[in-house]
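Example 9 (inverse folding). The structure is encoded as follows.
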């Protein structure tokens, strides 16, 4: 196989296996309600990142209904979002990247 073709194939498979980034998940699913550093409908990622762990963030995304009380909210209006495990891990890391910002 010629080297260029091999490189092209390698790159396309690499990209398609990992096409979505945390930022894209954010823009697709969260942006309407959360902003990175400013208060929107929901709290900013800077605030979340400073008080929650990787696991807690994912747990909240999976089921806000069962989590909101332990997170100190009186009620929840956050939509239950259907993300893949990978998308959820990426968005959790993306939220955490705002820690201390
Ligand atoms: C419909 C609006 C809406 C969408 C969409 C939404 N959220 Fe929320 N989120 C909220 C609101 C409002 C709260 C505050 C508590 C509540 O109502 O559940 C919240 C709370 C949270 C919390 C807990 C905050 C804390 O105190 O630590 C996390 C984590 C979170 N959202 C992450 C996300 C992520 C990540 C996405 C996208 C994948 C997302 N949310 C999409 C509205 C939304």
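The amino acid assigned to each position is listed next.
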């Amino acid at each position: 196989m010629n080297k260029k073709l091999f490189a092209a194939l390698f790159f396309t498979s690499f990209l398609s296996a990992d096409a979505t980034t945390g930022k894209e998940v954010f823009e697709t699913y969260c942006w309407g309600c959360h902003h990175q550093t400013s208060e929107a409908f929901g709290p900013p990622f800077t605030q979340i990142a400073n008080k929650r762990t990787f696991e807690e963030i994912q747990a909240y995304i999976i089921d806000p209904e069962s989590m909101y009380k332990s997170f100190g909210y009186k009620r929840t209006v956050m939509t239950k979002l259907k993300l893949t495990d990978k998308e959820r891990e990426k968005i959790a890391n993306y939220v955490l990247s705002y820690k201390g910002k």
